[in-house]
Amino acid sequence: MTQVSCPLSVLFLSACIALSPTALAATDERDALIKFYTAANGSHWKKSSGWKEAAESSSDPEVQQLPLCSWHGVKCASGKNQDSEGVIALELENNHLSGRITKHLWGMPYLKEVNFEGNNIKDAGFEGFDSLATKAPIESISLDENRLTHVTGISSAPDSLRTLHISSNSFDGDFPEEVMELKNLRSLRMAYNPGIVGTIPNTVGEVENLKELDLSYTSLTGKIPTKIGLLVNLQYLGLDECRLEGKLPEELNDLISLRYLSIKSTDEDSGKIDGPLPALTNLGDLRELYLDGNDLMGAIPRNFLENSYVTSKLVTVSLKNNKLSGKVPGELSRFEKLQLDVRGNQISGIANQLCRQKKWNGGQVGVFGCDAIACPKGTFTTTGRRETDEEECMECPYGEDDAQYLGSTGCLSMAVSTSAESSSSSNSSGSGISVVAKVFILSVAFVVPGAIGFTLRRAYIKHGRDPEVVLGSDGAAPTQKDIEEATEEKCVL
Q1: Which of 1, 331, 452, 480 has its CA 20 to 30 A from that of 489?
Q2: What is the pTM of this model?
């Protein structure tokens, strides 16, 4: 800050102070903050010490002299509360802010960080970046969990901006491509904005300094653009529960700095990624991979993550509920502490050496062997694998015909109980069904497990219902006693 040479005369001392750049800067900062306080409905803030007094008693010289750095949430470069200039950060998260941010805030001469998360701000005032002669040297803007509807003007933010967090807001419309003009951005979070539609723009590849990109839980559609492969500095990519479709682009393999990749699609309304599982051989630092709930097909490549240099560290690979088939390859044994989830696929086998990986799945493979990866064919648990001493992989009544793949969470024959229950609910309109009818339904299903029984069992798998089955003690069709006992316990029909 520039120093001004002043006469030593006491007569001119006060005038010198008034004209100094330091005093002018303090006055400008105070004025900008008071305008912001008013526009953001400061009278309703949860905490407003310093702000309230300055805004309501601005004519009182004593109050006017309260140092800016003593106001709630105001941080200054010196770190001293008694200072009256040099505001570098505003931390007002979860403080009942509402209304708008005035453009003057984005012109404060030293402001680097703004954290207004968890409020009700509707307008961020980014247009101020266009109209102000001097822009704040802002580095981080956190406006998660507000009510923003647009980010107009953000493209004119200074090159110093590194972090923009605007998740959980009220955006409605196409993806705001303005954010892709922030070439020096390092972290962009726009998750939990279901009102954002359209596609991921190809210009995403131009924000080449990005290290974090989270667009999860938006309504983005289409394919993942191939240009995303240009983000060679990217470490975190989140695209969960969008409406994306198509194959995973080969260019994902160019994200050589990636540590976290998640494209889960477990919601019914989410899109589904299909095609083969890429080997991702260039992602040497990948620690977490989540691709649950998609339509990935084919075998897990033998060279999957073959160039990983974190094989001695904890690595998570979750491929649950896809359409992957074949055998889990033994080459994965190079990972010492792998957390692997392949349940809910069409996996037919697991390489023997993987059953001896004592530190896999949190050490459970060392205790339960391959059952801790996935239950064998013809068996099941409610989770698809063994995770505790109490819950073993239990045999299905009809063996492998009942659970054709590894990692089953139920048996096909268990569809009988659920289907009969559904039929009972729809036909009885809330009234009870007779024991005779129950006997008839279960007798047909279990004693004659032909086309009808198979169809019912298929319906169970399709709807993914939790199994509830009652069998006789020898695994045969239930006796009259079994049915009556089950009825009393409300286990069937």
Answers
A1: 452
A2: 0.80
